[in-house]
Design the sequence.
């Protein structure tokens, strides 16, 4: 049986954007919240805070909510990595934090903003950390890491680095990440049985099993994956063009540098043989000052 992929925008929002308790479970599992700071209740917020990126506009899935303490949570899924996505996440969180001031609160009453970024591709700067798929970014002192500025926390999770075969599936974090990645290269649409060990994750699985999309929603679902594939192809082509251009420029620069080095070698030999600087300059194209320094 074919099941819908929870990474697709329409499916993700139907599960986590319409069922508060499932969104709470996901956030509590993936965010660095201490004991006593876990989310108990949320209210959904509008998701039209800023326009979509000009590139990759069809690959971003987001859910926004606020808990009983006034803390704000932004959940975004990016199907492929671009540097613009990082800046979008920063802009989103910054705007969410600053918008609290419009309510009339004093600065000391502003509540933290957490941005959870689920990435379906790896971040270039973390490629050497092959076993680390969760990256938490906070504002901290460069010399004294224990000194931090509270306000904004960013959590980037690289889904491709999460391997279910290496997990004991005892943690809720692993269960939710298994749920999100279970359709990755899963031709037979097999749902891992261990997902039934948690009530909330099991409920999300049942939504996947029972989900019925109307013709318009089904067309949107298929268009989403078509757009993702198209955008990934365009990015790959741009990358290849950039590499090719870089190689071409490197060859040109290498030829030019080699020619300059040859001219300097020839000029030095002629200078050692007593040839006049004027003649050396005419032959090699080097200036008299350059020749004198050889």
Sequence:
């Amino acid at each position: 049986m074919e099941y819908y992929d929870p990474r697709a925008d329409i499916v993700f929002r139907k599960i986590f954007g319409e069922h508060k308790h499932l969104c709470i479970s996901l956030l509590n599992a993936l965010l660095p919240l201490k004991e006593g700071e876990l989310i108990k209740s949320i209210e959904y917020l509008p998701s039209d805070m800023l326009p979509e990126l000009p590139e990759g506009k069809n690959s971003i899935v987001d859910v926004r909510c606020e808990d009983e303490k006034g803390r704000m949570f932004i959940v975004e899924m990016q199907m492929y990595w671009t540097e613009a996505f990082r800046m979008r996440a920063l802009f989103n969180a910054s705007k969410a934090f600053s918008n609290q001031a419009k309510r009339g609160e004093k600065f000391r009453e502003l509540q933290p903003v957490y941005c959870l970024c689920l990435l379906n591709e790896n971040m270039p700067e973390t490629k050497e950390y092959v076993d680390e798929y969760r990256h938490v970014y906070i504002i901290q002192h460069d010399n004294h890491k224990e000194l931090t500025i509270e306000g904004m926390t960013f959590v980037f999770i690289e889904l491709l680095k999460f391997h279910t075969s290496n997990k004991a599936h005892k943690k809720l974090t692993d269960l939710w990440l298994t749920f999100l990645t279970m359709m990755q290269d899963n031709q037979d649409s097999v749902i891992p049985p261990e997902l039934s060990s948690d009530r909330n994750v099991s409920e999300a699985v049942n939504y996947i099993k029972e989900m019925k999309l109307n013709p318009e929603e089904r067309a949107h679902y298929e268009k989403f994956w078509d757009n993702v594939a198209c955008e990934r192809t365009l990015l790959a082509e741009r990358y290849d063009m950039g590499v090719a251009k870089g190689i071409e420029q490197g060859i040109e620069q290498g030829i030019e540098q080699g020619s300059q080095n040859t001219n300097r070698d020839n000029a030095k030999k002629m200078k050692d043989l007593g040839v006049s600087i004027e003649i050396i300059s005419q032959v090699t194209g080097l200036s008299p000052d350059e020749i004198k320094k050889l």
The beta strands are 42-44, 60-67, 72-78, 113-119, 134-140, 148-158. Residues 49-58 have pLDDT under 50 and may be disordered. Residues 15 and 204 are 7 Å apart (CA to CA).
